[in-house]
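Notebook, bench 3.
Goal today: get a predicted structure for Cystathionine gamma-synthase from Microthyrium microscopicum so we can plan the truncation constructs. The sequence was checked against the plasmid map this morning, with no discrepancies at the termini. Length recorded as 424 residues. Pasting the sequence as submitted so the record is complete.
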Amino acid sequence: MAQEHHQQLPSTLSPSTLAIHADDYLNTSTDVAPALHVSTTFRYTNDLNALQPPNFDTPIAEILSLTNPTHVYSRLSAPNTTRLESILSALLHGRVLTYSSGLAAFHALLVYLRPNVIAVSDGYHGCHGVIGLLTKLYGLKKIPLDDDGAWDAANLGKGDVVHIETPLNPTGEAVDLKKWVKKAKERGAWVTVDATFAPPPLQDPLALGADVVMHSGTKYIGGHSDMLCGVLVTKHEDVWHGLFAERVFLGSVMGSLEGWLGVRSVRTLEVRITSQGRNATRIVGWLNAAFKGEDGASEEVRRVVGGSVLKIQHASLQAKEENWVDEQMPGGYGPVFALILQDKEMARRLPSKLALFHHATSLGGVESLIEWRRMSDSTVDERVLRVSVGLENWEDLKQDLFTGLKAVLEDVKPEKLSVEGLSV
Ligand SMILES: Cc1ncc(COP(=O)(O)O)c(C=O)c1O
């Protein structure tokens, strides 16, 4: 087996190149596709001169560094996940650690930062579940993001956390990160960002001042609905070291198969996310034009969309009103949007009328999904559908949605509708 040793590549290379080559320096065999290493434990050296106990005062991450990985036991580090971390570090512009799921990553982050107070908006309900666990364990206080009075009353300050999810689940709408970074920094608080819905090249929260960014890598980084993964990335060396050391004891590392799948997936992240985002933006544009009765939409399409849709939410629609959206999402908008229908029964029925969208939770895969959101989030309005657009041809998806909306409109006659105020 030939040994190849490469240097780490310059970070000035473009992300699409780094996604394919940032891990070349880790190659130890002639395989082009990386080998899957299943071992949980790794032999120490037989060279008696080199066989010395580590200096246990040295931060563990220095012993097991990405540049010179010496694997000992796979709860500490392992070849496939290290490879994934090396590529993600190049793409996310900081130092990366991977975890067994997005929520495991968020949990690890809060365990490390151990804030007294966390300011957070609505968004993915699972993150609120993690906060709830820490409230139970040590009394972490959760306050609303958009409430200055609550920030004052809780004395939010140094060591506390302002957590921003952007774009938001389930609406796909962006949050003005610059505004929240400024407010948080004035008080010395950490800014953590859940950027799951818009991985690079769509946005770069670290460049906008975030301290630590998390992703549910289960979504776009995985991209094929077949692996769980969590990601944390930071430019703060001390934070990365601390997180690494604590992950050893949390034990929430990715499995080696998932690490291997992650490398396979992340090679195509840029083409997937940009095409899926473009597809979503086109579908939203088409729906919105029909909804607004604008020229270009046929009378039939206007009748069907106008008769069934109550509201459409997506960052592309926000960008028409607010300049900061394009500034903060220079790579385009994400592939998720919310479609709110005029009636709960319409929303419940639409997924079953579609041929090209699976009715399932989650998002980020190459296949389009739609979810009647009430199936997994009890706090959401019953008329909300979350749409995760995949890599199919967008006109095929558009036609499928049109056919489905027409069918629900026939099933649920407009005269039976009671259009109440919308709370999302
Ligand atoms: C915005 C967001 N953050 C975090 C998570 C949790 O990720 P995971 O399911 O990988 O734990 C999800 C999952 O849907 C999500 O949508």
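Residues 270-414 form a domain with the Aspartate Aminotransferase, domain 1 fold (CATH 3.90.1150.10). The two ends are 58 Å apart (CA to CA).
Flagging this for group meeting.
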